[in-house]
Design brief:
Shape: elongated
Number of domains: 3
Number of helices: 13
Largest sheet: 3 strands, antiparallel
Oligomer: single chain
CATH architecture of the largest domain: Orthogonal Bundle
Helix content: 40-55%
Radius of gyration: 29 Å
Order of helices and strands: EEEHHHHHHHHEEEEEHHHHH
Length: about 375
């Protein structure tokens, strides 16, 4: 027996209570009153003995926590604890999911962590499935599981009930994504020329960047002497705000890519135009150093970029695809040109080559067909 719990007996309304000293939120001391079932008159010795029995029972279970903590309070504690343990982008994703979905639901339910059962979680998942995908619910489940596992290890709860809760399976359909051919890419370049989103569009087209990476590029990440750009930050939407984050999706997403002579000259011209805009706007110019900036220096917002992209491809009579599909287009076209899956994986900033294989296996299937023909005929047919 570890002796972590201490206590005393006190009288309230003519009855003895065991008053235990437990650990509350953030590790602060917390008292919990437990009825002994004994009246005040002549029962003090029995009350003390009952208190010792209660303490022994709790310590045998490994309980040294404030068991009155609500589940949504556990989530809040876990979220705060995660801030300094995970990447900023990961914490931001945790915070969005927890605050927008999980905490509001369980706060309304007002259930104590000790009373949480697998079916409570399953009810939540089924409700959310009405508006969210199975893959998204799996992410919610992962957050809940991690929060409860942290709470268990810190002895706020006895067990992690998420282990026994049903959650919808991830759909394992391989992502393929739509893509533009090189001829369609050429048409798109002409269509965006002179538009307010020309710069981020050419970055996405030329490098297969994520939207957040293109918008997060600043001039201090552009090296004109070495002719390179370094992807090390992103711009994302958080609520109603557009936020600059000095971080990317993963370590692999932090990468340096070369600029062609033509693209280098193009960005020089963009920088020169921004310097002229700064003179024009004077003190009202937002000199935040963004490559993808509006005339007054403010960063182009992610939603605005996606919306204008849709308008441009519609006017240009191009197939209706998502902005993110331009990233698929870059990868697919590179693979079709003969670049290896490893080359493309590094270029895109995938954390694992498996990710690239899963997304672009449809392109590799064509290569497999050509290899089968080559082995049969003894020669490779030029494609």
């Amino acid at each position: 027996m570890s002796g972590n719990i201490t206590g005393s007996v006190q009288v309230k309304k003519g009855h003895y209570y065991a008053v235990l000293n437990l650990i509350g939120p953030n590790g602060k001391p917390h008292q919990r009153w437990i009825a002994t079932g004994l009246t005040e008159k002549g029962n003090k010795r029995k009350a003390v003995q009952r208190m010792k029995e209660i303490i022994a029972e709790l310590e045998e279970q490994g309980v040294v926590y404030d068991s009155s903590l609500k589940f949504h309070e556990i989530l809040e504690l876990w979220l705060e604890n995660s801030k300094n343990r995970v990447r900023e982008s990961t914490y931001r994703n945790y915070k969005l999911v927890i605050n927008a979905h999980i905490i509001p639901y369980f706060k309304d339910l007002n259930i104590k962590a000790r009373d949480l059962r697998p079916f409570h979680l399953e009810q939540y998942y089924r409700l959310k499935l009405e508006t969210l995908s199975a893959n998204t619910i799996q992410k919610h489940h992962a957050n809940i599981y991690s929060a409860l596992e942290w709470a268990r290890k810190n002895q706020f709860v006895n067990s992690n009930v998420a282990k026994d809760a049903w959650a919808p399976s991830r759909k394992k359909n391989k992502q393929t994504g739509s893509f533009y051919t090189m001829e369609q890419i050429a048409r798109l370049k002409k269509a965006v020329a002179g538009s307010k989103i020309e710069v981020p569009m050419l970055l996405i087209i030329s490098y297969g960047l994520r939207r957040s990476e293109a918008l997060g590029l600043k001039w201090d990440a552009v090296d004109f002497e070495e002719k390179s750009i370094t992807i090390r930050a992103t711009v994302v939407t958080s609520g109603t705000e557009t936020v600059f984050v000095e971080d990317t999706k993963s370590d692999a997403s932090n990468r340096t890519l070369p600029m062609s002579e033509e693209f280098c000259e193009y960005l020089r011209a963009v920088k020169e135009k921004q310097e002229q805009d700064q003179e024009k706007y004077g003190n009202t110019y937002h000199n935040d150093g963004y490559v993808c900036a509006k005339e007054d220096g403010t960063v182009i917002k992610p939603a605005y970029l996606s919306r204008k992209f849709k308008d441009i491809i519609e006017d240009a009579n191009l197939p209706n695809i998502r902005l993110h599909d331009l990233r698929h287009s870059a990868a697919t076209n590179l693979l079709n040109m003969g670049f290896t899956i490893k080359d493309v994986s590094v270029w895109l900033g995938h954390a694992d080559i498996t990710t690239t294989l899963n997304i672009y296996s449809h392109v590799l299937d064509k290569s497999k067909t050509e290899m089968a023909s080559a082995l049969w005929s003894g020669k490779r047919v030029a494609g």
